From TrEMBL:
<dbReference type="InterPro" id="IPR044999">
    <property type="entry name" value="CbbY-like"/>
</dbReference>
<dbReference type="InterPro" id="IPR036412">
    <property type="entry name" value="HAD-like_sf"/>
</dbReference>
<dbReference type="InterPro" id="IPR006439">
    <property type="entry name" value="HAD-SF_hydro_IA"/>
</dbReference>
<dbReference type="InterPro" id="IPR023198">
    <property type="entry name" value="PGP-like_dom2"/>
</dbReference>
<keyword id="KW-0378">Hydrolase</keyword>
<dbReference type="Pfam" id="PF00702">
    <property type="entry name" value="Hydrolase"/>
</dbReference>
<dbReference type="InterPro" id="IPR023214">
    <property type="entry name" value="HAD_sf"/>
</dbReference>
<dbReference type="GO" id="GO:0016787">
    <property type="term" value="F:hydrolase activity"/>
</dbReference>
<protein>
    <submittedName>
        <fullName>HAD-IA family hydrolase</fullName>
    </submittedName>
</protein>
Length: 217
């Protein structure tokens, strides 16, 4: 392996619960009697895009809402939490980042999240350079997952072959995107995606199994 691609913000830091609470905050402010429990939120993580999740939920409820405005407010609340230091780097991911830096592997953060959210998260850990990222992608750089475009975009920019890259993902759309791009895929589920079907990935949790044994920490 010559590179590691971190595939989502919740693979870097477990932000799913912060996101869920931000959604509920936005709903309450808008006067909606919606409350997504952890179970509700887990069920909605099988698809990508917070705005689309809101629109789909409103359709289920048979009401019209401004999904764009609700999602914008949710993002504001989420950013406040990130900037307040609420996110914690996932332990295994921290070990992986340290390994990559020590052994000159290229690192990319191949996310389809909004650039502002990405920057808030990355900056809370000292910035992209401190984490060792050679590239950080965001929504708007390419078609969203589960399309493989973001991964293909990163491969092109870093002049890498798919066979030389290990992708770390924590959700089903991300896994589908990485597999479609031809990458080796390791699932690193978070609390809210542990129930996703990861039966077709190359491995779960143990990134050290996919990097040179003689270099393993």
């Amino acid at each position: 392996m010559k590179a590691v691609f971190i595939g989502s913000i919740s693979t870097l830091a477990d932000t799913s619960e912060l996101q869920r609470k931000a959604f509920n905050h936005a709903f309450a402010e808008a006067g909606l009697d919606w409350h997504w429990s952890s179970e509700d939120y887990r069920a909605r993580l099988s698809s990508s895009g917070g705005r689309d999740r809101i629109a789909a939920f409103a359709k289920e409820k048979g009401i019209e809402v401004d999904a764009e405005a609700l999602h914008a407010r949710k993002t504001e609340v989420f950013l406040e939490k990130l900037r307040g230091g609420a996110a914690v780097l996932r332990e295994q991911t921290q070990g992986l980042l340290e390994y990559a830096r020590q052994h000159d592997l290229k690192l990319a953060f191949v996310s389809g999240t909004a650039r502002e959210s990405l920057e808030a998260l990355v900056d809370s850990f000292g910035g992209a350079a401190a984490l060792g990222f050679d590239l950080v992608t965001a929504s708007g750089d390419a078609a969203p997952k589960p399309a493989p475009d973001l991964y293909l975009h990163a491969l092109d920019l870093l002049d890498l072959d798919a066979a030389d890259v290990l992708a770390i993902e924590d959700n089903r759309p991300g896994v589908d995107a990485a597999k479609a791009a031809g990458l080796t895929v390791l699932a690193y589920p978070n609390e809210n995606t542990a129930g996703h079907d990861f039966s077709d990935v190359d491995g779960i949790d143990r990134w050290s199994d996919y990097l040179p044994a003689e270099k393993a920490a």
